[in-house]
Amino acid sequence: MSISLWDLRALGGLPISGLIYDEAVPRVDELIGVDKDNMYYLPVNCRYLFLAYHRLLTDSKKGEMKIDA
Question: Which of helix, strand or coil describes residue 55?
């Protein structure tokens, strides 16, 4: 038994034909860069989420992260 393209589509929600999936990992300059008006390319809320993720990752590697249920 194998996984068909249709199964992959159902599992991942990705297209099985047509154009290449349009999501990509942005370049570093797109994440931290500014435009000619000195405005960040990345919205403030995204920058906050990346900082929160970075802190959680750093804390988990140090063994300092605690999760209460």
Answer: helix
